[in-house]
Specification:
This protein has about 700 residues and is mainly alpha-helical. Among the domains are: about 170 residues, Neurolysin, domain 3 (Orthogonal Bundle); about 60 residues, no CATH class; about 150 residues, Neurolysin, domain 3 (Orthogonal Bundle), CATH 1.10.1370.10. It has 28 helices and 9 strands. The strands form 3 sheets. A 5-stranded mixed beta sheet has the order 3-4-5-9-6, sandwiched between helices. It has a two-stranded antiparallel sheet with strand order 1-2. Strands 7-8 form a two-stranded antiparallel sheet. The protein is globular.
Length: about 700
């Protein structure tokens, strides 16, 4: 289950009007004001400067204002073409300039963050100016009311209905005084969300360092982890020492292998305390404000709470359905986690340890149990997971499933020198899109992994506009002369985010509003299903090759990996579900004003054991407070039911690359926005999904 995040791939919809410059007298040296001359018209990152963004955004707002006005001033009877289609195709310049938000997540600095604080309220205001435009809504409503008599095709009808639903959900039917209140709520929430993310970036990448100057404190750590820590120390101007950070490629191996228990506790507490240190980056007050304002907004819009508002357009439909679904998984998962805890405590006792297992011990003793039960540890696997080879493995799967080709490009501008670029083609050489890959941590990059778009698929004047997509990760860096060697979790993350990218690359819809527009609890299906192929023996033998000898991973090691597939699944499922329950509570329960007390009550209610923390504590829960997943973190496990059921179809067919199923799944990706999520899924599968494959996969049945 990978964040983000995300990640996050989102189409910027409802870009609106605000008081800004007229857009006249444009500085034509600004790349956004010209047609890109780059291959495939990708953004010319080498030419775009920080000072180009604000003028382009303001001019884009002004241009869309004119476009909207031409719709509302039209004296002709509202039709699909002169209202819905015209609106759908508006805002082209602003869409170009919206790459700013992607860069602010992946490659930011102090100046860019300051600019984000200036841009964010403008964007909030212009979204509201469109959503609350009475004349525009009147025309949309006219088309909506007579939609069944206009001889619209299915795609047109869906676009009409979705736009009307958007206006309703964003307050178009509210009286003037309530709309004014809504505007204030939206602006304040947008700024709070931005600040939350800035605080976590600082807390993760700048505030904490575990500095070790005694070699004895490194006992138990693999050599590649020690070398990476020495490299980090050099970077931090502490040569001769070893530095560990809160980035997962640094922190997780320390928790897995470091024998110094007090230092494990120190780095773990540093991680779970992010945003809760009563300093300038503290997020507790932001959380309190956000959940209060979200609740107010939901009630203003006619919903019982923010969770009810959010889930209303998802596959789950109601918070009650989500709670019931999560609890079906919680009961077997918590029992499994308790058994895992007891196994580790028994190991501690057998070794003569005079202490009770604590949360910072879990990774260390879980690794010992895995070694004892399966004769397997991460250090055995990593030499076979060279980053370049894993990328080749992902490409191999994509080619076998869909026949597509990846052509490495070195002539495309990038926003950071570490970014790789590929052209993606059909088997016959037809261009599909461009794929950027950004793999390693740096100080200006948010934690986690996500996928986004620099250009989304669209049609203009009958011609298809091809997508430009990007995956952003935080994988282990090369160190000590060795290439980047990934953990198996990182391997699955690469396949996961690439699945999001394929969704965007294959999307083929006629309208921006419905192209790739799927419910939040559907969006992780295309990503999570890709993880299944990463661990298939047939695929492992293609990409898992020792970085020094080139030898293919031995069958014996594959067998160990398969046997250990359900290892620690109680822990992994429980920590995830705990965060999902916490998210739903934040957005459906009454908040008493104390963030830490609220969180404790939420976790006590479900019976979370002391040895496990929720995957995200509230103060650094970026998914829900700065990442667009509020009342939606549950979607990963909801989509896991879909992906396990979908992959089960491949397995049951006897061919994990079954061409008929692959073609149907590609159609699902291409046409995912053309209907409701369950309809689209059933078109692929022929039936509703079963939860049984997921329970089997996790060993919960």
């Amino acid at each position: 289950m990978k964040k983000i995040g995300i990640s996050i791939v989102a189409i910027m919809l409802f870009i609106s009007v605000c008081n800004s410059t007229s857009g006249q007298n444009k500085d034509m040296s600004n790349p956004f004001f010209n047609e890109y001359k780059t291959p495939f018209q990708v953004p010319p990152f080498n030419e775009i400067k920080l000072e180009h963004f604000l003028p382009a955004i303001e001019a884009g707002i002004s241009e869309q204002q004119t476009e909207i006005k031409s719709i509302t001033d039209n004296k002709e009877e509202p039709t699909f073409e002169n209202t819905i289609l015209a609106f759908d195709q508006s805002g082209e310049l602003l869409n170009k300039a919206s790459i700013f938000s992607n860069l602010n997540s992946a490659n930011t600095n102090d100046q860019m963050q300051a600019l984000a604080r200036e841009i964010t309220p403008k964007m909030s205001a212009h979204r509201d100016n469109i959503n609350l435009n009475k004349e525009l809504f009147k025309r949309v409503k006219t088309v909506y009311d007579k939609r069944n008599n206009l001889n619209l095709n299915h795609e047109q009808l869906r676009a009409v209905e979705k736009y009307y639903q958007d206006f309703e959900r964003n307050g178009a039917n509210l009286p003037d005084e309530k709309q004014a209140e809504l505007r204030k709520l939206n602006e304040e929430l947008s700024m709070l969300s931005l600040k939350f993310g800035e605080n976590i970036l600082a807390e993760t990448n700048k505030t904490f360092r575990l500095v070790i100057d005694q070699k004895a404190d490194l006992k138990g750590l693999p050599e590649d982890v020690i070398t990476a820590a020495a490299d980090q120390a050099k970077k931090d101007k502490m040569e001769g020492k070893w530095v560990f950070t809160l980035q997962k490629p640094s922190m997780i191996p320390f928790l897995q292998y470091a024998e110094n228990r007090s230092l494990r506790e120190k780095i773990y507490r540093g991680y779970i305390s992010r945003g809760n240190n009563n300093n300038t980056n503290d997020n507790k007050e932001i959380i309190a404000k956000m959940v209060t304002l979200r609740d107010q907004r939901a009630k203003l819009l006619g919903f019982a709470n923010h969770a009810a508002y959010t889930v209303d357009i998802n596959m789950a439909k109601t918070p009650e359905n989500i709670d019931n679904f999560l609890m079906k998984l919680w009961n077997p998962a918590i029992e499994r986690a308790k058994k895992e805890r007891d196994d580790m405590q028994a190991l501690i006792n057998a070794e003569g340890g005079k202490f009770k297992l604590e949360m910072w011990d879990w990774w260390f003793y879980a690794e010992k149990v895995r070694k004892a039960k399966y004769d397997l540890d991460e250090a055995q696997l990593k030499p076979y997971f060279k980053l370049d080879n894993v990328v080749d493995g992902m490409i191999y799967v994509a080619n076998k499933l869909y026949g597509i080709k990846f052509i490495r490009r070195t002539d495309l501008p990038v926003y950071n020198e570490e970014v790789r670029t590929y052209e993606v083609q059909e088997a016959d050489g037809r261009h599909i899109g461009v794929f950027y890959m950004d793999f390693h941590p740096r100080s200006g990059k948010n934690a986690g992994a996500w996928c986004n778009s620099f250009r989304t698929q669209a049609y203009k004047d009958g011609k298809k506009i091809t997508p430009v997509v990007s995956i952003v990760c935080n994988f282990t860096r090369p160190s000590g002369g060795a290439p980047a060697l990934l953990s198996f979790d990182e391997v699955k993350t690469l396949f996961h985010e690439s699945g999001h990218a394929f969704h965007s690359l294959f999307t083929d819809g006629p309208y921006r509003r419905t192209s790739r527009s799927v419910p939040r609890d559907f969006v992780e299906l295309p990503s999570q299903i890709m993880e299944n192929w990463a661990s298939e023996p047939e695929v492992l033998r293609v990409y898992a090759k020792h970085y020094q000898t080139g030898k293919v991973i031995p069958d014996a090691l594959i067998a160990k990996l398969e046997k250990s597939a359900q290892f620690n699944q109680g822990f992994e499922t429980v920590e995830y579900l705990a965060a999902s329950f916490l998210d739903m509570d934040w957005h459906s329960k009454t908040f008493d004003g104390n963030v830490e007390a609220f969180e404790k009550t939420s976790m006590d209610k479900i019976g979370l054991i002391n040895e496990i923390e929720p995957r995200y504590r509230s103060s650094y829960f970026s998914h829900i407070f700065s990442g667009g997943y509020s009342a939606g973190y549950y979607v990963y496990i909801w989509a896991a039911v879909l992906d396990a059921d979908a992959f089960d179809a491949f397995k049951q067919s006897g061919n994990i690359f079954n061409p008929e199923l692959a073609a149907r799944f590609r159609t699902l990706l291409a046409k995912s926005g053309s209907d409701e999520g369950m309809v689209v899924y059933k078109n692929f599968r022929g039936q509703e999904p079963s939860i049984e494959p997921l329970l089997r996969r996790r060993g919960l049945k």
